[in-house]
């Protein structure tokens, strides 16, 4: 069977069944777009985790004389308390680095960070307590530090950035689960639609099929145009989905978030390309399987 | 070439058998009419010989193959050795005459060079030279049937099965078609033609197998359609 002849059959088949072919393209596109979005969200979360966990810190705020925390009993932390905390921290194996931020440094940093905000005017030096910034060698072990220093004398509060990030990552996780679930439903739709399309295409081509059977064309010759048709439309669908993912990433992330501090921790086009072969492979497997099963059921020779 | 041994066929969901205990043997190169009224089992015989249906009991041997033991995978190859023509022509309306005939060769993987040679050759043989670029609806009924015959014989089959090929044609054209089949037969192809057209049968005076209600009631050489039983 000549490739040119098959190509002609596929082309005429697609033209005669254009509306169904279009719907398969669109459904495949939407399903793969959703799946891609879910997977990209997960990759984004992973990228961010790596970025943030390198920078994550546990902050131990010391008491000032205006502290309201019961642990402070209304008194500022003494030199001795401060020293004992620092020594304890440095002795801990989980701790990679410790540095002390004085009230003056804290105030300067605050002014720098909120330089465009009107609230700076009401804050004075001493309103922000001195603190120890602790860098952990394993950021997930923050609980050790928290439990040891929460009730230590002179400590107002222990704040861990991981708690904030955890919520954030949880949200990303939910987005992933949701979009992958939707994508799963859409993939089922796509497979069913492919099956229906093949049945309709077989009906449209019943004359040709009848003659092919009569003159002794092999089963594969009869089936191949259908399978190739499905492959063509499914591949077009994935192609569009990948294009949309790439475009979406460029528009939303790179242009919208670029100004924000996060830009180093963002996924980019490379992540879309990394996903692409999997999306294509998955859809090709689905298209071929659906075609073969459907043809087996509806195109008995 | 074609042998029916005690063949019976009962279609599913049918109470009456389509064929009952049929014994017919068609030799290589023979021309046989299968005659009988509608529903007498003519088409069923041809469908069995094409392996479109399987016999309920008995054996059907075609071109040396026992069709009851032929696996579905081997059916296509078997059918390549058999041509078939029908009352309704079964041409592809969107394809030209050339393309219709070439289609039969393309789908069995014949090389393009062979197709370029065989198609015009066969069209000339059936008397359609110069009409290759026409579409089926631009041809008369007789011409359309010639295209169908060209398609059936273009792969040079050993056997040509014709199911009421003249059923849609007027008497004069019908005779032309049967003469064409006769010519094909003389070149060595075994021809079996089912018909209920008495005129063509009487004109040709060939072997006649007569069916009634699925039973062979007469099998006679050099025969006419309505000849009384027992008289030759």
Structure in a nutshell:
The complex is a heterodimer of chains A (about 300) and B (about 230). By secondary structure, chain A is of the alpha+beta class. Chain A has helices at about 5-15, 20-55, 80-90, 105-115, 140-150, 160-205, 205-215, 220-255, 270-300, and strands at about 55-60, 95-100, 130-135, 155-160.
List the helices and strands and how they pair.
The complex is a heterodimer of chains A (301) and B (232).
Chain A: H1 3-16, H2 18-55, E1 57-62, H3 79-91, E2 95-101, H4 103-113, E3 131-136, H5 142-149, E4 155-160, H6 161-204, H7 206-215, H8 219-255, H9 269-298
Antiparallel strand pairs in A: 1-3, 1-4, 2-3
Chain B: E1 2-9, E2 19-26, E3 31-35, H1 42-49, E4 57-62, E5 65-66, H2 75-79, E6 82-86, H3 97-106, H4 112-125, H5 141-153, E7 159-163, H6 171-186, E8 190-195, H7 198-204, E9 207-212, E10 215-220
Parallel strand pairs in B: 3-8, 3-9, 6-7, 7-8
Antiparallel strand pairs in B: 1-2, 1-4, 4-5, 9-10
Descriptive account of the structure:
Chain A has helices at residues 3-16, 18-55, 79-91, 103-113, 142-149, 161-204, 206-215, 219-255, 269-298; strands spanning 57-62, 95-101, 131-136, 155-160. Chain A has 301 residues and is an alpha+beta fold. Chain A has 2 domains: 3-52 and 166-298, no CATH class; 55-161, 2-Layer Sandwich (Alpha-Beta Plaits). In chain A, helix 1 packs across helix 8, helix 2 (18-55) packs across helix 8 and helix 2 packs antiparallel against helix 9 (269-298). The two termini of chain A are 18 Å apart. Chain B is of the alpha/beta class. Chain B folds into 2 domains: 2-81 and 157-220, Rossmann fold (3-Layer(aba) Sandwich); 92-153, no CATH class. Chain B contains 7 helices and 10 strands. In chain B, the strands form 2 sheets. Chain B has a 6-stranded mixed sheet, with helices on both faces. In chain B, strands 2-1-4-5 form a 4-stranded antiparallel sheet, covered by helices on one side. Chain A binds chain B through residues 1-2, 5, 12, 207-208, 210-219, 221-222, 301, and chain B through 50, 72-73, 75-82, 84, 90, 92-94, 103-104, 106-109, 112, 151, 155.
């Amino acid at each position: 069977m000549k490739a040119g002849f098959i190509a002609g059959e596929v082309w005429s088949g697609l033209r005669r069944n254009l509306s169904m072919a279009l719907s398969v393209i669109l459904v495949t596109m939407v399903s793969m777009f959703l799946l891609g979005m879910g997977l990209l969200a997960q990759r984004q979360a992973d990228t961010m985790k790596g970025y943030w966990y390198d920078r994550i810190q546990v902050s131990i705020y010391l008491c000032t004389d205006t502290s309201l925390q019961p642990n402070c009993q209304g008194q500022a932390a003494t030199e001795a308390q401060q020293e004992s905390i620092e020594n304890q921290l440095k002795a801990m194996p989980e701790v990679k680095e410790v540095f002390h931020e004085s009230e003056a440094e804290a105030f300067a940093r605050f002014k720098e960070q909120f330089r465009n905000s009107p609230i700076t005017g009401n804050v004075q030096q001493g309103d922000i307590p001195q603190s120890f910034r602790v860098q952990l060698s394993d950021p997930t072990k923050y609980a050790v530090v928290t439990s040891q220093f929460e009730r230590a004398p002179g400590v107002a509060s222990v704040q861990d950035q991981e708690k904030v990030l955890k919520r954030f990552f949880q949200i990303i996780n939910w987005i992933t689960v949701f979009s992958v679930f939707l994508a799963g439903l859409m993939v089922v739709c796509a497979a069913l639609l492919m099956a229906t399309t093949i049945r309709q295409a077989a009906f449209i081509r019943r004359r040709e099929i009848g003659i092919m059977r009569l003159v002794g064309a092999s089963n594969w010759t009869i089936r191949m145009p259908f399978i190739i048709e499905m492959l063509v439309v499914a591949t077009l669908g994935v192609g569009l989905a990948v294009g949309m993912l790439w475009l979406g990433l460029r528009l939303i992330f790179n242009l919208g978030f670029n100004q924000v501090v996060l830009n180093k921790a963002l996924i980019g086009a490379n992540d879309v390309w990394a996903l692409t072969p999997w999306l294509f492979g998955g859809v090709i497997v689905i298209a071929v399987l659906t075609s073969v099963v459907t043809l087996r059921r509806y195109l008995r020779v | 070439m074609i042998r029916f041994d005690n063949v019976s066929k009962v279609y599913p969901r049918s109470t009456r058998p389509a064929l009952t205990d049929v014994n017919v043997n068609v030799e290589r190169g023979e021309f046989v009419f299968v005659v009988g009224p509608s529903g007498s089992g003519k088409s069923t015989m041809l469908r069995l010989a094409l392996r479109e249906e399987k016999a309920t009991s008995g054996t059907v041997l075609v071109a040396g193959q026992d069709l009851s033991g032929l696996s579905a995978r081997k059916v296509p190859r078997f059918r390549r050795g058999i041509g078939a023509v029908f009352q309704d022509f079964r041409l592809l309306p969107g394809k030209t005459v050339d393309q219709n005939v070439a289609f039969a060769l393309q789908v069995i993987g014949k090389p393009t060079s062979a197709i370029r040679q065989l198609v015009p050759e066969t069209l000339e043989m059936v008397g359609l030279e110069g009409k290759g670029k026409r579409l089926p609806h631009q041809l008369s009924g007789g011409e359309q049937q010639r295209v169908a015959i060209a398609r059936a014989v273009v792969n040079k089959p050993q056997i040509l099965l014709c199911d009421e090929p003249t059923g849609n044609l007027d008497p004069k054209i019908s005779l032309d078609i049967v003469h064409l089949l006769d010519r094909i037969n003389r070149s060595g192809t075994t021809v079996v033609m089912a018909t209920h057209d008495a005129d063509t049968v009487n004109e040709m005076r060939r072997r006649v197998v007569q069916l009634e209600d699925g039973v062979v009631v007469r099998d006679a050489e050099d025969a006419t359609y309505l000849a009384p039983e027992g008289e030759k």
